[in-house]
Amino acid sequence: MLELSDLTVAFDGTVAVDGVDLTVADGDVLAVLGPSGCGKSTLLRAIAGLEPAVGRVAWDGADLAGTPTHRRGFALMFQDGQLFDHLTVARNVGYAQRLRGGDRRAVRAEVDDLLALVGLAGYGDRLPRTLSGGERQRVALARSLAARPRLILLDEPLSALDAGLRVRLGADLRRILVEAGTTALLVTHDQDEAFAVADRVALMRAGRIVQEGPVAEVWAQPVDDEARDFLGARRSFGGPDAARILAAAGLPDEDGVTIVVRPSGSGSDSGTGTVS
Ligand SMILES: Nc1ncnc2c1ncn2[C@@H]1O[C@H](COP(=O)(O)OP(=O)(O)OP(=O)(O)O)[C@@H](O)[C@H]1O
């Protein structure tokens, strides 16, 4: 379990992350959602140990202050995936295991399992430049999972993709993380990305977390007008997203349903949203 307590990062007096308290339970996928410049990437870097911070980052109760990035057992995945262009897909995915001196055949078997998990069975001998953007992101994800991280940190992993692909790959990303049983923290400014991938969402604004909870609950009951306007950019949900909302509401699933969410009131007054 990841626990952040009163985590603060300041640059020359500018506070980018301001007293953040957050917990990510084992196996959960949390999205930190907020506008550009609110401090998301800085928060992620502080968790990874790449940015000096005040406050506490702990895993299973152990403070990580003295633990360097490469010993935290966390994996980082960025927007552009950052693959090695001159290495095949299989070599990209197996890179860390090979560095650790893994047996060739065992590494290959594990790589094949991971490629199957991300829906790229048989792609092992391809070079990254022959893949689509979505396929490259899947390879990057397989490579992150290959290190068997206890936490995977994702910085806008789907933002470089076009809208249609983003929604499809978002659902896949969620399935892959759940199947791998990985605990994950994703930061994004994109409501679609947060909704498609995460179980829980934390809204971030000017360095602070202003609301945190299960995704459907946060959408239905935004904490204030600003949160409602920000979330309002995403109003309708279809396919697997609709199925998740129906399940969360205890309603039977039906094919082809589109759910329209209208946050109502200021949240702090009425606290209710409408699902129709
Ligand atoms: N190395 C740095 N030195 C000085 N200021 C920085 C540094 N890194 C980030 N900041 C500032 O901290 C604030 C938060 O930046 P951050 O990159 O964390 O935001 P973000 O929410 O990830 O934005 P985006 O979605 O645009 O990437 C910004 O005001 C930014 O200018």
From TrEMBL:
The keyword Ion transport applies. Residues 2-231 form the ABC transporter domain. InterPro entries: AAA+_ATPase, ABC_SmlMolc_Importer, ABC_transporter-like_ATP-bd, ABC_transporter-like_CS, ABC_transpr_FbpC, P-loop_NTPase. SUPFAM superfamilies: P-loop containing nucleoside triphosphate hydrolases. Pfam families: ABC_tran. Keywords: ATP-binding, Cell membrane, Ion transport, Iron, Iron transport, Membrane, Nucleotide-binding, Transport. Transmembrane segments: none annotated. Coiled coil: none annotated. This is ABC transporter. It comes from Nocardioides aromaticivorans.
